[in-house]
Amino acid sequence: MTALKKITFALFVPLFAVFASCATMIDGEVRSGGAADIAVDASLEPRTIALIHSLRGFMGGPADAPILDGAAISQSMADAPGVLAVSLVNSSPTALSGTVSVSNVGDFLLAGDAEGQFITFTEGQAAGTSSIVVNLDRTSAPALIARLTPELGGYLSALMAPVVLGETMTRQEYLSLVAMIYGQPLADEIAAASIRASVQFPRPVTAIQGGTAAGNRAQFDVPLVDLLVLEHPLRYEVSW
After folding, report:
1. Mean pLDDT by 10 residues, the chain (240 residues)
2. pTM listed for this prediction
3. Helix H or strand E encompassing 77
4. Which residues of 202-231 are buried (b: 16+ CB within 10 A; e: fewer)?
5. CA-to-CA dists, residue 193 to 168, 233, 236, angstroms
């Protein structure tokens, strides 16, 4: 399964979790000063596409409108904190590609309050004194999703994701619920999806939590269902 492909900058995994029922390959770079560039090439899984089309038909929505709306996402993110420029276009109604330039990862999609902060960036001159920490829990994750386009939050609601609905569930309870409502194939599609990330840093990585590292590069493999359920808080940290 390869649904979300070639999305750069691994520490933005919560942003891409909104493309539920997908697998993600990420290759990115963090530069000195905290700036980053994100190149995106994304598409949805077939059963998720079928589900959204069915929901649109039931609600009387347009059948040919993009499910991943590059223009809408670009407009929503253009004025967001930490974003220098964003350009996302649709290659099909279920796929998009483009770029996002970030001035400082610590400001990325920050709401201006402690509840909205999910990335903490610290920069130092000596080895091991710079770090990025990503914390996702039942407070920070919903605050992040609320600042994205309403359509994406709506898709997660349709998939009954606990992170959006504010419900407490285990991974298995959630997958069983999806199977009961939408069928086992969709539940299996969600269970198999993961976010695999590879990120280059300005210096060799000296410490990592939630992944592995070799030289300047860190690797992560995050099951998507963990992000949708947040049965336990997720923490990813890299020092360099």
Report:
1. 34 41 64 84 70 62 68 80 84 78 78 62 91 86 68 72 89 94 86 80 94 93 88 92
2. 0.74
3. helix 70-78
4. eeebeebeebebeeeebbbebebbbbbbbb
5. 21, 19, 19
